[in-house]
Design brief:
Blueprint lengths: L2 H13 L3 H13 L6 H7 L5 H14 L4 H7 L5 H14 L5 H7 L5 H12 L8 H18 L5 H15 L9 H13 L3 H16 L2 H4 L4
Helix pairs in contact: 1-2, 2-4, 3-4, 4-6, 6-8, 7-8, 8-9, 8-10, 9-10, 10-12, 11-12
């Protein structure tokens, strides 16, 4: 898509005069997957329009790595709502530069932010870190995810299970996965929410199916 067309789509967002109009314009801009749209999509995160914010997050995730630094640079200046949406975007992108933010967000007061952080922590692209730093980063993510499996909200515990499965099956797993398996076995016995318990069972099956070369850290 040409730069001129992206500028037109950005202008459409600015011209929209209703919530639905903004939503439609942001969806179109997000679909362009253009780096030229990053600044406007980040701006949309601060609008009082949840639908448009979701569309903007989708667009930023689709753009990927080029959106990470702009998100991180503006994170501290956001109002809470925009910051929460930005965290969801970082979680979806999976860039390891978002690790510190996601570790903190896992204890956020908003369950939707905690849920996004839990999923994101397990799915970071660890291979983009320097080899010497992978084990430390994964250890910190593991500790946070294990704590998150005790969250009072079942949707967050569910997300923590998803995150732990992703971590345990990561091709670049540099730590022992035994604590994950042990925690899953505890949850099978103690988890009160059936959907979470079922998700734990699925995670165990998937971890066991991983090839030895990938799952060597999983006890």
């Amino acid at each position: 898509m040409t730069e001129d067309r992206v500028r037109e789509l950005i202008a459409d967002v600015d011209r929209a005069d209703s919530a639905d109009g903004v939503l439609d314009a942001v969806k179109a801009l997000s679909a362009a997957e253009s780096t030229d749209a990053i600044a406007k999509l980040i701006e949309v995160l601060g609008y009082n329009n949840p639908g448009a914010a979701v569309a903007a997050v989708d667009g930023l995730v689709a753009i990927g790595e080029p959106a990470v630094l702009p998100l991180l640079e503006q994170l501290d200046g956001y109002n809470y709502g925009a910051r929460a949406w930005a965290i969801r975007a970082l979680a979806g992108i999976g860039d390891p530069r978002g690790l510190e933010i996601l570790l903190t967000a896992a204890a956020d007061f908003s369950l939707s932010v905690r849920r996004a952080a839990a999923r994101g922590l397990g799915a970071l692209r660890w291979q983009e870190l320097e080899r010497g730093g992978i084990a430390d980063a994964q250890t910190r993510a593991l500790e946070t995810l294990l704590e998150t499996t005790e969250d009072p909200e079942w949707v967050v515990r569910y997300a923590a299970v998803v995150g732990l499965e992703a971590l345990a099956t990561a091709p670049t797993l540099s730590i022992s996965g035994l604590p994950i398996r042990q925690r899953f076995e505890e949850m099978i016995a103690t988890e009160v929410e059936p959907s979470v318990r079922a998700r734990v069972g699925l995670a165990i099956e998937r971890i066991e199916a991983v090839t030895p070369s990938q799952g060597a850290g999983v006890g």
